[in-house]
Amino acid sequence: MRHRIAGNRMSMPEPRRRSARRNLMAGLIRYDRIQTTEARARAIRGEVEKLISVAVKGREDARKHLAVVVSDADQATKVLEFARKGRFSLKHTVASNEDRAKLQKAPLTANGRKFQEDKLKARRAELLAIIPNEDDAEKALRAAYDAMVIELHARRLILSALPDELVVKKLFDELAPRYLGRPGGYTRITKLGRRKGDAAEIAQIALV
């Protein structure tokens, strides 16, 4: 889908210019391509490429950290997917109502306790289906949580520059895997001619 995002022909205060740049950058990442003035396309190109590089490096560093413990790529992917579902350990048990009271938590009914125990049992089975050895599974899970922290740091860096959760999600879920191993050159600018009225050069900037 092609989206045209025209530049404002009049000068504007810096906060509005910054907001306009962010909108252009978000549009490019969201739709893969936008049309704007050539000057604006060139102005955002470096910033967008820098954000993609941060996402790629964050994803790469996280995967490398996990690979030290889980060398099998398929297992690593599955363990990371498991870790994203929430904190877990094979040592987890359902606390007694006495212990829950000490933590100022409501007591569990018999049905509530069975539900919690079944939930832990299912998660335990899911993890051990990926890595059968319990010690190895625990180490892999800890490494996966560490990898998530590494990636989270990269996400926060990007959010500070481009506060749009959906755009950041696409950067990590789609673009980082797409550009893994590629050293830059994520965008291409194509001139489209001049705009009627002020004859400004119009261009398309697209993700390659």
Automatic annotation (TrEMBL):
Keywords: Ribonucleoprotein, Ribosomal protein. Transmembrane segments: none annotated. One of its GO terms (molecular function) is structural constituent of ribosome. This is Large ribosomal subunit protein bL17. One of its GO terms (cellular component) is cytosolic large ribosomal subunit. InterPro entries: Ribosomal_bL17, Ribosomal_bL17_sf. Part of the 50S ribosomal subunit. Contacts protein L32. One of its GO terms (biological process) is translation. It comes from Dictyobacter arantiisoli.
